[in-house]
Amino acid sequence: SDGSIRLHQMTSEYPLMQWNDSTNGRPIIALQWALTRPSVFFVLDASSNIYIWDLLENDLFPVAKQTIPSENVVTMALLGEPEKTNGLLGIALAKESGQIDIQYVKKKWALR
């Protein structure tokens, strides 16, 4: 609820990494790991901002932020096929009106 993210290992109750206030205090609505690149995850906050984290590029801050204008995004899901090497990774965004938008992610965050 405060925008904090914690990365845990299954064998420990203590986080390996913790990012406080990662969304400037906005609640996190959804977080999902990329299906095609294990070091990348996506965060959706309550203000319809999507943050892209690539832990191999920068483990302190997101590498990109995209604001979805005009309408609240209520959830997101990632689309991709991990067994394929074509680098296609998409984000399905569900908006408050019921509309679904699908956007493709740049290959640099999708390829292994």
From TrEMBL:
Domain of life: Eukaryota
Cellular component terms per the entry's GO annotation: cilium; cytoplasmic dynein complex
Alphabetical GO biological process terms: intraciliary transport
Entries under InterPro entries matching the protein: DYNC2I1 (IPR042505), WD40_repeat_dom_sf (IPR036322)
MF-aspect GO terms: dynein heavy chain binding; dynein light chain binding
Annotated protein name in UniProt: WDR60 protein
Lineage, opening ranks: Eukaryota, Metazoa, Chordata, Craniata, Vertebrata
